[in-house]
Write a structure and sequence with these properties.
It is a single chain. The protein has about 150 residues and is α/β, with parallel strands linked by helices. The chain has one domain: Response regulator (Rossmann fold), CATH 3.40.50. It has six helices and five strands; from the N terminus they run βαβαβαβαβαα.
Length: about 150
């Protein structure tokens, strides 16, 4: 099985290094970014399976980054790590899971693995263009059901 690729974003270099060391030893391929704009560039040029991001960063918060990433790829798992109790208790909408900084890193690893397993076990959603022919067929059937009795009268 190929290694899962994580993008870890934090403005604190010691946290970035912690993510790299711990997550690498658990079988993840880790790419690091120091801020939101750098993370977006890396995301667009690399194959990323999930993102772990700090909440409070200068320039672009983790919530803003998560929202932008979800617009690009809605099924992407995004984990927010924050020292803010409010951000953890009431995570932003675009975040799949919020974690308190200082929580056991093994718990973070376990939760990321659960999110990835859930993502990769789900069938990919059908793009809207694939549903258009189905809509046309259903509309034709509905029209036929409505008109057929009136034609027979």
């Amino acid at each position: 099985m190929a290694k899962r690729r994580l993008l870890c974003v934090d403005d604190d270099s010691s946290f970035r290094q912690l993510y790299k060391n711990v997550l690498s030893t658990h079988g993840f391929e880790v790419t690091l970014a120091a801020n939101g704009p750098q993370a977006l560039k890396l995301f667009l040029t690399s194959k990323i399976d999930a993102v772990v991001t700090d909440f409070e960063m200068p320039g672009m918060t983790g919530a803003e980054l998560a929202a932008r990433l979800k617009r690009l790829r809605p099924e992407l798992p995004v984990v927010l790590v924050s020292g803010s109790k409010q951000a953890v208790e009431t995570p932003p909408e675009a975040v799949d899971l919020a974690f308190a900084k200082g929580a056991p890193v093994t718990k973070l690893v376990d939760e990321v693995e659960v999110l990835l397993a859930r993502r990769f076990s789900r069938p990919a959603p059908l793009p809207p263009a694939r549903l258009i022919p189905l809509g046309s067929v259903l509309a034709s059937i509905a029209l036929g059901v409505y008109l057929f009795p009136r034609i027979l009268k």
